[in-house]
Fold each of these.
Amino acid sequence: MNFRSLKELAERSSARQTSIGRWMLEEQSQESGQPQGTEFAKMADYYRIMKEAVVRGLTEDTTSRSGLTGRDAQRVMSFRGRTEPALGDAASLAMSYALAVSEVNASMGRIIATPTAGSCGIIPGVFVSCQERFGWEDDMLVYGLFAAGAIGYVIANNSFISGAEGGCQAEIGSAIGMAAGALVDLRGGTPDQAVHAVGLALKNSLGLICDPVGGLVEIPCIVRNDFGAVTALAAADMALAGVQSVIPSDEVVQVMLEVGSAMPEALRETAGGGLAQTPTGRRIMNELRTK
């Protein structure tokens, strides 16, 4: 790819006077040697799978094999039908959709890793809820996925996207940044605003540990996805309003690398610390071993 930093990404998109998503499609086509139409169709298939996962999470039994999680997205949707959520309609819908996709993942359903399976709910939660809210066609959201991919490419090549390497900040944090920046791009913000959204989102995720109870991508992974969707919406709105990340976004990515490298092994997906080693976490692990 012809860029290595978020700053370069914004500069090159701006120079072409196009959105990050459309510019990334051109780059991807050149990189792969495939026509743009072929690359677009592949990404469109990914978005279709995301939408299918949202529906499945809201209509089918998503109880995981461990029995620890499932159907919480349906509970949130039922709550939304009974009363006005404190979050408001838009944010609570994104939250419930993110939860739905994450529960599909935990119940061995089909999802798209964005950037990992553990953070698979954030981008669909943001994208599908905003599509319904703003009346966007699927094609528009496909360009949004290219924008998210461009942001994820920079993060992956300069820091982490794996919880085992850099803690949950690397998975959930990256997904929040990808969703926030892409949403700015979708709503007509400038490439600079999109990059500021990434920095704003990542700063709010620094230091987040990876502490899966029982070693499963369920607790607390699933609820972190729905909180992450809400954070992405907030970061996008702030950037579109003109709020900037005082610390440049590329420097925030570098700090995520430094924090993740300094994080103890027990807090990097080993289930050796954090919530996984609480009395309840240890009890759950012991019960799973005897099943």
Amino acid sequence: MAADLQIIGWCEWARFPHINNERVNMKVDSGARTSSLHAVDVTPFTKQGEPWIRVVFQPEQGSDREVTQEFAVFDKRKVKSSGGHVTDRYVIKTPVIIGSQEFDIELTLTSRENMKFRMLLGRRALAGRYLVDAQSSYVLGE
């Protein structure tokens, strides 16, 4: 099975077809269970009786450019950060393209303003798809 998995580096690019086809720089983290995406603002609202959120993203590190998108709430989870702090986070499910693969991904939304990468790719998204070469970066190109 391992021979069937695509090799990726410790950092790569992800593209989001349903978020303005934005390209986001991500860190691959097999220690993190869930993937996370930088969100500047998350506003809950109700649409046809269902919970939705309006999310403001800043997809480029060092840029104030914002993209706003609405999503049905997939879940709300307690997430423990690497520092041990537990927060409630909204979870969305949206398509992502990483290398040649497109699949639906669950993403928690949080501020990653002080982090080097706008996205963290966790082990749930890695499982059955990728092997990580921890010595390499941007194996899949741009």
Amino acid sequence: MTAYILRRLLLLIPVLLVVGVIVFTLIHLIPGDPAAVMLGREATREQVEALRERLGLNEPFHVQFFKWFTNVLRLDFGNSLFLDQPVTRALLDRVQPTGLLTLYSLTLAVLIAIPAGVVAAVRRNSLLDRLLMVFSISGVAIPNFFFGILLILLFAVILGWLPSGGYVDITDDPVEHLKHMVMPTLALSFSAAGLMARLVRSSMLDVLHDDYVRTAYAKGLPHRHVILRHALRNALIPFLTIVGISLAGMLGGSVVIETVFNIPGMGRLLVQSVTRRDFPVVQAAVMVVAAVEVLVMLLVDILYVYIDPRVRYGSD
């Protein structure tokens, strides 16, 4: 297991290299000159050229990329072109809202999906099963930003129960923090919960007809014990993969949700940085998300072993 983990961690470097090449190339293909954008329309050609020289934008593409990626491996993402501070500091200042939003949303999605999927599978083709699957399909079909707007209209405009947007630090006022995070969490977790519930139902239907489940019933074990201790445990193996994939989707979805609810997180910073042509911030944010996704999938692989003892990772 240790050798496997070390190999996966080493694979993080080529993954980041591929992501870095793609992001770096796409960023530099965007029309416009970041130096001209920074200085404004009143800037002279000489001022623009001087800034391009200072930022290293006049160097060949491969030279710029090599310098940037070498610094990335040292966790040095450079300085923001607009914020006048290191990119690392800019991301750290905004990681709490994004991290908490993703954590809340993933937790809520899992808490909804597992019971819904299990109940739908156990009561297959019943009215409850059909209602739960309608919820699941709705979650997959409705975009999270549109669902967020509907939540604002209902709970903030019509009922006035919750604030329409903004963010309160959890250390300043936990109650107000939770009030501001309720609707963004619901909006971001809705689609993931629907997808997870469908997968749990499908996995449960597969294992409920296996021999070991019938054997457990033949031994006289209680129905709840068979479902939770035998069937559900094996059904969670493919579910873990979807959890890892959903985490990446939530990190990407936070870009839109943070903009809709005016949350000062990494997603909103990314949108602003794209508009400003702030190359270092955009590249760093995408690289961080890619690294987090690789580490999450590594954690999922490790959890496989604890859920199913038959799973083993050899040293070859």
